Amino acid sequence: AYLPATYHICNADVFFFLKETNQDITRNSSLQSRVDSFIIYKSKLPPVLNATYGPFSVEQAVPLDLMLSSTSFGFTNEFTFNWKLKSHIIDSSIYSNKPKIQTLFYIAGKDWDDYDPEERLPCVKMFAFLESREVVASCRLTGHLGLCVAELELSPSWFSSPPPLVSEDTAPLEGITVELFYKIYTADGECSPEDEKWENNIHTDQDNEQKALPAME
Q1: 3-state class (DSSP) for residue 76
Q2: Helix (H) and strand (E) counts for the chain?
Q3: What's the confidence (pLDDT) of residue 206?
Q4: What is the edge-to-edge ordering of all strands in the sheet holding 6-10?
Q5: Which residues contact 83 (CB under 8 A, 6 or more apart)?
């Protein structure tokens, strides 16, 4: 036996109810409760979950903290709730004779059907850290693809730093690993520190971390 309730997602353009391949058959074998999973793929308005059981019906808005949204973009007709800012380091290894780090930032999940060339997109500021040193670059997302390239240049002192200590069981890394982070600013902001908001590390896995290497002979 199971609770014969039906669900519907309102205010969502595209959504899917999910079923686990190895779902426990006893999980929904009660007449008191029911558990189902769903994903909202595209929505311009705050989604609402509607549940119906016989003559009874109830609605509840999906909490916004469960949605991949951002107040930096705002909840407009142009930006869907599942937008995501993505990044790609153009060259993962740099050298002292060409000490520039370039990162491509772009928007995924935006509804571009009603693209307005005059639309103002957020600004992205990228930081590189090594010990107590820091260097910053910024760019503003633009165009019908919502992308930009942030470029920063490392001073010669970054390449003369001693490599970090490693244990005997760990293979030493070639060169120096530099941490990259980014901040995203509201579309109305001018990349001022007052509007800053920390976002994720550009690459979280060690294999993709930015490396600043000495010049090759």
Answers
A1: coil
A2: 0, 14
A3: 37
A4: 6-10, 48-53, 56-61
A5: 68, 69, 70, 73, 107, 108, 109, 110
Structure tokens at 150: 């942030």
CATH entry 2.60.40.2550 includes domain 84-213:
yes
List, by residue range, all CATH 2.60.40.2550 domains of the chain. 84-213
pLDDT band at 121 (very low <50, low <70, confident <90, very high): confident
At 12-54, the pLDDT tens digits run: 888 888 877 666 666 767 777 778 888 777 777 788 999 998 8
11 closest CA partner among 38, 43, 51: 43
Judge whether 148 and 103 are in contact, CB under 8 Å: no
Asked if residue 80 lies in contact with residue 47, where contact means CB atoms within 8 angstroms, the answer is no
Kindly report the length of the chain: 217
Which pTM value belongs to this model? Answer: 0.56
